[in-house]
Amino acid sequence: MSFLEWRKFNFFDIIHNADSNKISQTIGSSKITSTSSGHGHLVTCDDDGLVHLITRTFQVTTFRAYQSTVLLSTQLQYSSILVTIGEDEPNTNTILKVWDLERRDRQSTPICIRTTKLPKSEKPTTLCATDNRLLMAIGFKDGCIALFKGDLSRDRNSKPKMLKELGQGITGMAFKCISKDQWYLFVSTVSSVQQFNVTSKDSCPMTVLDAVGCDFKCSVLVNGPDSHFMIAKEDAIYCYTVDSRGPCYVVGGQKIILQWFRNYLIIVSKERGKPLNAITVSTTTKHSDEIESISITVLDIQNKFIIYTTTMQDILSVLPEWGSLYILTTKGSLSQLIEKDLQSKLTVLFKKNLYDVAVRMAKCQQYDSQALIDIFRQYGDHLYTKGDHSGAVEQYIKTIGKLEPSYVIKKFLDSQYIDSLTTYLHALHKLGNANKDHTTLLFNCYSKLNSLDKLQEFIVIKDENIDFDVDVAIKVCRQSSPENALALAEKHNRHSLYIKILLEDRHEYTSALEYIEKLSVDQSVQIIKQYSNVFIENVPKETVSFLKKLCSTWYTTANVDLSGNLAQPEDFIYLLLDDSECLVDFLEHFDNFLDKWSTSLLNTYIEHCLIVWKNENNQENRNKIEKKIINILQSTDIKMCDHYQVLILAMSFEFKPAIVYIFEHNKQYSKLIRYYLSLNDYIGAIECCRRYGHVEPKLWVLVFNTAIVDDMFPPFMLEEILNEIEKKSLLSAHFTITSLAKSKTFNIGHVRAYLTSLFGAEKKILEKDKEMVDKYQNDTENLKHTIEKLKNCAVVFQGLRCSACNNQLELPSVHFMCQHSYHQHCFQAFSESDDDCPACTPNNKQIMDIIRTQGQIKDYNSEFHNQLERATDCFSLISEYFGRCLFDDLSTVENQLAKSKLISSPIVLTPKPVVPVVQTPPRLSPILSVHAIQQQNTNPFDEDEDNMEYDDNKNPFKDEYDESKNPFADDT
């Protein structure tokens, strides 16, 4: 684009400062030879060797730097260092001086911290230094360049390095930093541009960038990471990088000064049509004739428009400082160019409807994002008003995320703007700011435009990162394009919606099942439960087959924690309740995992097996089902099975094998007998009695009671029943015969064998009992005789030896009526008590233990009743209990035995001839002693517990004893 075609704006205000007269008065008639700015100063140097420092308040400080003239100067931007080159004497080598403006002497003059005499006699033309003070270059008129390395303020004795001589005067130089340790030096002459790599230690290689040069002050380095070295020619502005030539900007006019300020390029040039000799330009090497008019132009190169232009006279230099531009004339007057604020600029652009320019300017100056959005909105409104709807949509798209979408959507709701609305909605989804309503609207727009290909491209092929409400999109696509709805549901894993479309819209039930098989177990379970009824109604076989595979994972998985998320057969039983055969087939698939079946599942399976068995007409198939049910019941014995529920089912369907098995398994044999008898299955009842009669003998009695009252009972079975009753003594003969006498079915011939056997057995029992009675009578007579002898006759002690030590007895001795005799010291050593015979004590204790044991046994009432029920002769059992005193109080028996003194009354014989007359019964056998102790105490000398009155007539020793008849009495 030509310079003349650029848009022009007035974004600067020029101020002619009234204090500039102070500067003119300070400079006086001297000629300004060099200018510079930085670190809060404007620096001017004149041909009298003076340096003038101008502050922001236009206060001027002047000090003498040289005796003759100041040729060049540069003020470091971020440092207080000022570098000057001048002459103390004409026609001598120039002198380099470094000043520290913050350090002053007593006269407030800056201190010179370095002075170096330049090695060449040629006059220098350009001077540049880096802000870090490590590099400095001086260009001379003959094309030589002196490069100084090191700290400018300290390396006073460092010698410069002379670079390659270019043969032409140096018109401009600038340092550019590529990285921390890599620096390049751009150099321009009248006819060339080159760069030197000044970081090299041995040499500084040169690269020629262009064969086009520039005049003095017509080169500048643009700041920033993508900076360029610019030179100004009459036809254009040329840019260069460290490697090659850069862009070129067509800007006509003869350039005098080139300067950079912020993001703007300042060009000072001669007005077109003016003769060259009519313009006065001040340089460091010559003083040209004054010119009549010079224009100053500020360019925004990035946005390609002119932001300010004006015409002035005698411009010497343009100095950027304090955020403004200062224009210095040859006469010393100073004018200030102040940039307008951004809002003022934008206001001007808005009035001219230059929104595109406003946007570019706002972006360049990092304008606030919200304010930038407002510019886009205004720009879009402007284009919408002009009828450029596509352009308006482009601007509205840039407001997404900040501007409410409804503001834009309502502008394009008309059907003629549907294309623009579709574009905006598409962008709204792509940026993730759409909601359900926007999705619905977008898909409706695609449908109205019949752009199914674009719809498919939007949702399937392209724009993978587009965020929209998938459920709404699928719902809209179902109405116009079910294929796209399926693709969208599959892409975004909306499995339930995918299946719903296949079932409701396309009725592809098999395809839906195939799709479900590809999903994970959790997803398959969730979906099949949701649509199981539909699958069963349309594809029952395929559905059952799929359910078998699905539920198998629950049994085969090893992770118990995951089993809660898997499908279980119980979840799908309700679907197959109307088809028992299908349900049985489904559950039989899992018969290898019966140990994992629940009780309800097992009962359901058995119930429907019974239904199938009931409806089956083929006997072979019925037998198979019977075996299957019994095998199921047998295989689940280790698992808790609700047998009562199964029993109810079996009785409802009259399934005899299951009823028999459950009764047998639960040992309910009496119920089993009743069940057989209710079916008139007498053979089965007898077989049951044969198998379990030894466990529960009452089964024969139960069959016997039924046989008596049942007219259909086979008589030939009665004999076996009666034999078992007789053998096991289940009923008394009297009761049996009485019951048979009441029966109308049986006659004497049916029970002849039983009666014959019964009477024969009774006869043997009577004979045996008679023998026992005779024996017991004889034993009783013997015991009575012994007792009478002990009561009424004296006992003669004839023992000669001690029963303990077997030595000859000596007085004192102890004699017991059991015919045991002891030395008194032996008795005291071996006896546990003073009243018991040591030899008889163990036997007596054994007898007492038997009595106590019998007393304890009588407390077990249940045991007594059990014996009574099993006893063949109940009367004999009760008599035995009475005879063993098991119904008496044990303490009473023990007291009676203690009072009797028949067992443990010792007789102590001392040398004194005293003969006590106390008797004890003879030593008895354990059996006889037990019976003897159990008899009632008949000792007339003992008092019983009832305090009976003693009959003195029965005492044979009641008369006083005649001592004269005592052969052992003392002779007196």
From TrEMBL:
<feature type="domain" description="RING-type">
    <location>
        <begin position="802"/>
        <end position="841"/>
    </location>
</feature>
<dbReference type="InterPro" id="IPR057308">
    <property type="entry name" value="CHCR_PEP5_VPS11"/>
</dbReference>
<keyword id="KW-0472">Membrane</keyword>
<dbReference type="GO" id="GO:0031902">
    <property type="term" value="C:late endosome membrane"/>
</dbReference>
<keyword id="KW-0175">Coiled coil</keyword>
<dbReference type="GO" id="GO:0030897">
    <property type="term" value="C:HOPS complex"/>
</dbReference>
<dbReference type="InterPro" id="IPR057307">
    <property type="entry name" value="PEP5_VPS11_N"/>
</dbReference>
<protein>
    <recommendedName>
        <fullName>Vacuolar protein sorting-associated protein 11 homolog</fullName>
    </recommendedName>
</protein>
<dbReference type="GO" id="GO:0005764">
    <property type="term" value="C:lysosome"/>
</dbReference>
<dbReference type="Pfam" id="PF23341">
    <property type="entry name" value="PEP5_VPS11_N"/>
</dbReference>
<keyword id="KW-0863">Zinc-finger</keyword>
<dbReference type="Pfam" id="PF12451">
    <property type="entry name" value="VPS11_C"/>
</dbReference>
<dbReference type="GO" id="GO:0030674">
    <property type="term" value="F:protein-macromolecule adaptor activity"/>
</dbReference>
<dbReference type="InterPro" id="IPR013083">
    <property type="entry name" value="Znf_RING/FYVE/PHD"/>
</dbReference>
<comment type="similarity">
    <text>Belongs to the VPS11 family.</text>
</comment>
<feature type="compositionally biased region" description="Acidic residues">
    <location>
        <begin position="941"/>
        <end position="950"/>
    </location>
</feature>
<dbReference type="InterPro" id="IPR001841">
    <property type="entry name" value="Znf_RING"/>
</dbReference>
<keyword id="KW-0653">Protein transport</keyword>
<dbReference type="GO" id="GO:0006886">
    <property type="term" value="P:intracellular protein transport"/>
</dbReference>
<dbReference type="InterPro" id="IPR000547">
    <property type="entry name" value="Clathrin_H-chain/VPS_repeat"/>
</dbReference>
<dbReference type="InterPro" id="IPR024763">
    <property type="entry name" value="VPS11_C"/>
</dbReference>
<dbReference type="InterPro" id="IPR015943">
    <property type="entry name" value="WD40/YVTN_repeat-like_dom_sf"/>
</dbReference>
<dbReference type="GO" id="GO:0006904">
    <property type="term" value="P:vesicle docking involved in exocytosis"/>
</dbReference>
<dbReference type="InterPro" id="IPR036322">
    <property type="entry name" value="WD40_repeat_dom_sf"/>
</dbReference>
<dbReference type="GO" id="GO:0007033">
    <property type="term" value="P:vacuole organization"/>
</dbReference>
<keyword id="KW-0479">Metal-binding</keyword>
<keyword id="KW-0862">Zinc</keyword>
<feature type="region of interest" description="Disordered">
    <location>
        <begin position="938"/>
        <end position="972"/>
    </location>
</feature>
<feature type="repeat" description="CHCR">
    <location>
        <begin position="396"/>
        <end position="544"/>
    </location>
</feature>
<dbReference type="InterPro" id="IPR016528">
    <property type="entry name" value="VPS11"/>
</dbReference>
<feature type="compositionally biased region" description="Basic and acidic residues">
    <location>
        <begin position="951"/>
        <end position="965"/>
    </location>
</feature>
<keyword id="KW-0813">Transport</keyword>
<feature type="coiled-coil region">
    <location>
        <begin position="766"/>
        <end position="793"/>
    </location>
</feature>
<dbReference type="Pfam" id="PF23356">
    <property type="entry name" value="TPR_PEP5_VPS11"/>
</dbReference>
<keyword id="KW-0458">Lysosome</keyword>
<dbReference type="GO" id="GO:0008270">
    <property type="term" value="F:zinc ion binding"/>
</dbReference>
<dbReference type="GO" id="GO:0048284">
    <property type="term" value="P:organelle fusion"/>
</dbReference>
<dbReference type="GO" id="GO:0007032">
    <property type="term" value="P:endosome organization"/>
</dbReference>
